[in-house]
């Protein structure tokens, strides 16, 4: 299996295209039957390629107590690895897009490749941030747009920027998103305290007319009672 994986990694690094399992078998000098026992589809093959490319990032852990600093630490530490394995990560994105179209057209004949490592990685990064659940979810999803191979695709292919500038812009976007979430959390009004139960409310004093002695004539008693 290791030989097949190394061959697939090398083919993608050299040519940029996604090899079939059969092509990897031929280049590795392994029978197709053996290759398909290890990787039953291109999805399985690319999944293994991505896991090897991300390497230690999949189990990345930090004890930095400040959420903003932890997000910066993550982006600073991982974007150089995205650059190192850019062809492999681009291939994974390409396969996901290709399969999306085939699935919509009813032509997909393999289990689709599903991406998602960034969800867990980013969840750990934003864990220390004191945010309401809905705002935390929004920040989590927003950061997932700028964390990964996508900034390289947009900023290099469309804007022609060098790798270092891609990293700087991605980090700036991450900082901006975190700061915006923290400002919104601080500006949100504090939740109102629930009113106490009726039995616990302070009783309102009720005025009671003074009693009129029985010796007072009836007409005077009526006047006093008014």
Structural summary, described in words:
It is a single chain. The protein has helices at 2-15, 21-28, 32-38, 42-54, 67-84, 86-104, 117-125, 133-146, 150-157, 163-187, 218-225. It has 226 residues and is mainly alpha-helical. The longest helix has 25 residues, at 163-187. The radius of gyration is 33 Å and the shape is elongated.
Radius of gyration: 33 Å
- Described by the principal axes of the CA atoms, the overall outline is elongated
Tally the beta strands: 0
- Mean pLDDT level: 88
Q: Please report the number of helical segments.
A: 11
Based on secondary structure, the structural category is mainly alpha
Instruction: Provide the low-confidence segments as ranges.
Output: 197-201
Level of helix content? 55-70%
End-to-end separation in angstroms reads: 102 Å
Features:
226 residues; single chain
Concise description?
With 226 residues, the chain is mostly helical. It has helices at 2-15, 21-28, 32-38, 42-54, 67-84, 86-104, 117-125, 133-146, 150-157, 163-187, 218-225.
Topology:
Elements lengths: L1 H14 L5 H8 L3 H7 L3 H13 L12 H18 L1 H19 L12 H9 L7 H14 L3 H8 L5 H25 L30 H8 L1
Helix pairs in contact: 1-2, 1-6, 2-3, 4-6, 5-10, 7-8, 8-10, 9-10
